């Protein structure tokens, strides 16, 4: 099988983004400055970004047969992401979000419809496909993701994990992860101080070669084989 740079596990979603001056009061309207429809999902977005940079990527997951699902599949294919392992669930509703950003205060408001899709199960995973990748990228510690990690490790594929929030199940996976990118929320749950360099080193000793903590407007901190960086 042809080698893939990165394979991700995710349930793609659709975002309708609208930029306005500020939110209107009840029973009032406000004009849109600009708007767009965009595919979403943490892992899905990363795969598209990588594909646009020239990497060969594929996705494992599912979408509905509805308009958002068709949009997500077409958008991934338009950017060159392999969708052979992206199933379509008849009658399923793909996750949909209305994202409104305000020019006045730089804030963002999200109205979310989660959909009703069934997540990928371990028995649906293609071991050969997973082991064809250099990296397996994920953001949740669900059963299929844990099974995929075992398959990937057995074939020499490295694990990349994007952690929005701290979960005990995610923490248990740390020794299996090669690249950990985690949020400030994750950091604050684990550590109660700002000794970033020391704490990145602690996580590295648990297994990951690369550790990055994102700090919102403050940027990020991290450590790799070359040492600590901000």
What descriptors fit this protein?
4-stranded mixed sheet, 230 residues, alpha/beta
Q: Largest sheet, described in full?
A: 9 strands, mixed
Computed CA radius of gyration, to the nearest angstrom: 19 Å
Q: Choose one word for the global shape.
A: globular
Q: Encode the helix/strand succession as letters.
A: EEEHEHEEEHEHEHEHHEEE
Structural class: alpha/beta
- What is the end-to-end distance? 39 Å
Low-confidence stretches: none
**Strand segment tally:** 13
User: Into which percentage range does the β-strand content fall?
Assistant: 35-45%
Look at the structure and give the mean pLDDT. Answer: 96
Topology overview:
Elements: E1 4-10, E2 13-20, E3 32-40, H1 42-52, E4 57-64, H2 67-78, E5 82-89, E6 96-102, E7 108-113, H3 127-131, E8 133-138, H4 143-155, E9 158-163, H5 168-173, E10 179-182, H6 184-190, H7 196-206, E11 210-214, E12 220-224, E13 227-229
Parallel strand pairs: 1-4, 1-8, 2-6, 4-5, 8-9, 9-10, 10-11
Antiparallel strand pairs: 2-3, 6-7, 11-12, 12-13
Would you write up a description of this structure?
The protein is an alpha/beta fold and 230 residues long. It is 28% helix and 36% strand. The chain is built from 7 helices and 13 strands. The chain has helices at residues 42-52, 67-78, 127-131, 143-155, 168-173, 184-190, 196-206; strands spanning 4-10, 13-20, 32-40, 57-64, 82-89, 96-102, 108-113, 133-138, 158-163, 179-182, 210-214, 220-224, 227-229. The strands form 2 sheets. A 9-stranded mixed β-sheet has the order 5-4-1-8-9-10-11-12-13, with helices on both faces. A 4-stranded mixed β-sheet has the order 3-2-6-7.
């Amino acid at each position: 099988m042809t080698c893939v740079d990165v394979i991700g596990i995710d349930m793609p979603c659709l975002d309708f983004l609208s930029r306005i001056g500020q939110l209107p009061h009840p029973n009032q309207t406000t004009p849109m400055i600009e708007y767009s429809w965009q595919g979403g999902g943490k892992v899905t977005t990363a795969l598209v970004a990588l594909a646009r940079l020239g990497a060969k990527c594929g996705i494992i997951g599912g979408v509905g047969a509805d308009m958002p699902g068709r949009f997500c599949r077409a958008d991934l294919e338009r950017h060159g992401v392999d969708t052979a392992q992206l199933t379509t669930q008849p009658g399923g509703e793909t996750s949909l979000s209305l994202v409104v950003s305000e020019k006045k205060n730089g804030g963002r408001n999200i109205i979310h419809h989660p959909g009703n899709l069934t997540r990928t199960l371990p028995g649906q995973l293609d071991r050969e496909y997973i082991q064809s990748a250099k990296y397996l990228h994920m953001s949740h510690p669900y059963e299929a993701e844990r099974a995929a990690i075992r398959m990937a490790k057995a074939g020499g594929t490295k694990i990349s994990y994007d952690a929005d929030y701290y979960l005990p199940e995610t923490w248990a996976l740390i020794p299996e992860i090669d690249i950990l990118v985690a949020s400030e929320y994750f950091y604050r749950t684990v550590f109660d101080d700002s000794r970033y360099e020391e704490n990145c080193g602690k996580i590295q000793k648990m297994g990951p070669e690369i550790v990055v903590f994102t700090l919102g407007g403050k940027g990020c901190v991290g450590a790799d084989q070359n040492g600590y960086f901000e």
